[in-house]
Write a structure and sequence with these properties.
GO biological process, one term: microtubule cytoskeleton organization
Strand content: under 5%
Protein name: TOG domain-containing protein
Order of helices and strands: HHHHHHHHHHHHHHHHHHHH
Helix content: 55-70%
GO molecular function, one term: microtubule binding
Shape: elongated
Structural class: mainly alpha
Largest sheet: none
Radius of gyration: 45 Å
Distance between the termini: 103 Å
């Protein structure tokens, strides 16, 4: 096609120069017959020759710098420090070698910013709680305040050691920690609902120790506000603590605290968001039902007037004949409210139905 166009446009030139025309036609035919790859190679080689020369850049700084000797030493010391921190169970903690000097530096050690030293001091608090708890009586409030500060530490090793310290304090001092319990309790509830498993498990163990070591009469008022906390996980953990603490009251303790209050607490948790909280409420209701049925002291008496039958003629004659002899009167019959009646009288209708649905279904399964 290229040859034809050239021949058509330059017809006059072709007639004037026939020899040149033949040569040009031959050259054009050869050009059209060349492979495409050879033509592109020729054009690319020309482009390479025409590209300007660019001088290479000097003094280019690498993106990743080689490690400095000081940083390597710092990382190595950090790894050694991590290896030095151990989570020792209470039964395996040994006594302090120097009690007096350890007591003198205890508070300052709890304020240390060096986390390895802080963990060691927390373990010393545990040793004091186990072997020398009388030495902590005068500074117990200050110790608890600093332990709470350690519970808020973002480093997991410090946090878990502080949780274990809290559990040992509960075991050693029991009801004496009630006045300082609020900040420690909220931190343990928070840590027990975290995603870090080893921290969560340690906090749950500490809460179990708390419910065992502290009197339920003192602990339940501390737990009750957290049953309405906006965080559903905290509500669930508080419900578990309540369900563990109430059975330790016994029948007399339940009566003193108020079984009607406890039933209202449990019924409010039956409709909670998390199943963990609902299960704790069911367990509490079953314990309350068992205590109510087995202990008449918990069941209020019904005010029922029992009609006395009129005396018959024969009884009148017997009475007149033996006026000096008095027959013993039968003991008055005492009627108690049943569990169903008690729930219906102390709860709203829908709440009472939910409670009875739980307790009745479990009773039928047991039968």
């Amino acid at each position: 096609m290229v040859v034809n166009e050239l021949m058509t446009r330059n017809g006059f030139w072709q007639r004037a120069n026939p020899s040149c025309t033949m040569m040009s036609e031959t050259a054009l035919r050869d050009l059209n017959l060349l492979p495409k790859s050879e033509r592109t190679n020729e054009s690319s080689s020309k482009d390479i020759l025409t590209k300007p020369y660019v001088e290479p850049r000097k003094n280019i700084v690498p993106l990743v710098e080689p490690p400095v000797k000081g940083t390597e030493d710092a990382h190595a010391s950090a790894e050694v420090a991590v290896a030095e921190v151990e989570y020792i169970e209470s039964e395996k903690l040994e006594d302090l070698e120097d009690v007096e000097n350890s007591l003198k530096v205890l508070l300052s050690g709890l304020e240390s910013r060096e986390w390895v030293s802080l963990c060691e001091t927390l373990n010393n608090v545990r040793r004091f709680s186990i072997y020398h708890k009388e030495a902590l009586h005068d500074i117990l409030d200050n110790v608890i305040t600093l332990v709470v500060k350690a519970l808020k530490n973002p480093r997991s090793a410090v946090c878990k050691t502080a949780i274990m310290t809290s559990a040992d304090i509960f075991k050693a001092f029991g009801d004496l920690v009630v006045d300082s319990l609020d900040p420690m309790l909220v931190q343990l509830l928070l840590k027990s609902s975290q995603d870090k498993r080893f921290v969560c498990e340690a906090a749950e163990k500490a809460l179990i120790t708390l419910t065992i070591s502290v009197s339920p009469v003192l602990l339940l008022p501390k737990l009750q506000p957290y049953l309405k906390h906006r965080n559903p996980r905290i509500r669930a953990k508080a419900s578990l603590c309540v369900s563990r603490s109430v059975p330790q009251l016994g029948a007399d303790g339940i009566k003193e605290y108020g079984i009607d209050k406890l039933i209202q607490i449990a019924s409010s948790q039956l409709s909670d968001q998390l199943p963990e909280s609902r299960e704790a409420a069911r367990a509490l209701l079953l314990d309350l039902q068992t205590a109510y049925v087995k202990s008449p002291v918990l069941a209020p008496q019904q005010d029922i007037d029992i009609p006395v039958p009129p005396p018959s003629d024969q009884s009148e004659q017997d009475t007149s004949s033996s006026s000096s002899v008095q027959q013993p009167q039968p003991p008055p019959q005492v009627h108690y409210y049943s569990w169903d009646q008690f729930c219906e009288s102390n709860l709203p209708k829908l709440s009472a139905q939910a409670v009875l649905r739980v307790t009745t279904s479990v009773t039928r399964e047991g039968l």
